[in-house]
Design brief:
The chain has 40 residues and is mainly α. The protein is 75% helix and 0% strand. The N and C termini lie far apart (57 Å).
């Protein structure tokens, strides 16, 4: 199987994207928890 050459900067881009996704997921979970607390 041929190896695909990745563009320069691809690794850092993917890592930054993963970090951003994690941050947004955490913020969404906190917002949901906050809203659930207002129901009680």
């Amino acid at each position: 199987m041929a190896r695909i050459e990745l563009p320069e900067g691809y690794g850092p881009f993917v890592e930054a994207l993963k970090a951003r996704i994690h941050e947004v997921q955490l913020r969404a979970a906190l917002a949901v928890n906050r809203e659930l607390l207002t129901l009680y």
